[in-house]
Write a structure and sequence with these properties.
The protein has 196 residues and is an alpha/beta fold. It has two domains: 3-137, 3-Layer(aba) Sandwich (Rossmann fold); 141-195, no CATH class. It contains seven helices and five strands, in the order E-H-E-H-E-H-E-H-E-H-H-H. It has helices spanning 12-22, 36-45, 62-70, 89-98, 110-166, 173-181, 191-195, and strands at 3-8, 28-33, 50-54, 80-84, 102-105. The protein has a five-stranded parallel sheet, sandwiched between helices. Helix 2 runs parallel beside helix 3 and helix 3 packs parallel to helix 4.
């Protein structure tokens, strides 16, 4: 199963470098964008497995992109790796606050990049496994509930048929009434008594 990795950077050379590095990871399919708006529009239709976003971009920076990305349905838990040349602590706090999961400082170290990306992919695989498992369990509970309801319906129907068969043909309705209702002898009430 291929994992879609969204790569967003306004510099085509950086995008080419990241996509080249991602090609070294099995079952990894990079989807690259130069403009944040185009990336967000794509995310409305497709949910990526991992997002790699540059911090410094014209118009919308990486922090704003993450904020908007997290508002898209189904994208609340997607792992995000922010790539930046800025080592400012305040920037990291902002990015973490809006939903970034990890950081890489430019220039990118190939070994660190691959290790962090593989960690993010493993996290996403586990998320998907848990989601699939939860959906499967939900379906199993629904099936079991439907089965139990059907058995209860059959049991109730069978009991009712047996009770009706027990009533002799020539018994007055006042004596048959408790049998139909399933009441004990001590709680017999004749329909005539009810109407009086």
């Amino acid at each position: 199963m291929d994992m879609n990795i969204l790569v967003l950077d306004d510099a085509p050379m950086n995008v080419a470098l990241l996509c080249h590095l991602l090609s070294k990871i099995e079952h990894c399919k990079p989807v690259s964008f130069l403009a944040p708006e185009a990336a967000l529009a794509w995310c409305e239709e497709q949910i990526p497995d991992v997002v790699m976003v540059d911090f410094m971009m014209p118009g919308m920076d990486g922090v704003e992109f993450i904020r908007r990305f997290r508002c898209i349905y189904g994208c609340q838990d997607i792992p995000i790796l922010m790539i930046t040349a800025n080592d400012e602590v305040q920037l990291r706090y902002q990015a973490l606050d809006v939903g970034a999961n990890d950081f890489l400082i430019k220039p990118i170290d190939k070994i660190e990049f691959l290790a962090r990306t593989k960690n993010m992919l493993a996290l996403r695989k586990n998320q998907r496994f848990l989601q699939d498992r939860a959906a499967w369990l939900d379906e199993e509970v629904r099936k079991a509930t439907a089965e139990i309801r059907e058995r209860e319906r059959e049991t109730y129907s069978g009991c009712l048929k047996r009770q009706i068969r027990v009533i002799p043909k020539r018994v007055p309705i006042s004596f048959a009434w408790p049998i139909i209702r399933g009441l004990s002898r001590s709680s017999w009430v004749c329909p005539r008594q009810i109407s009086n």
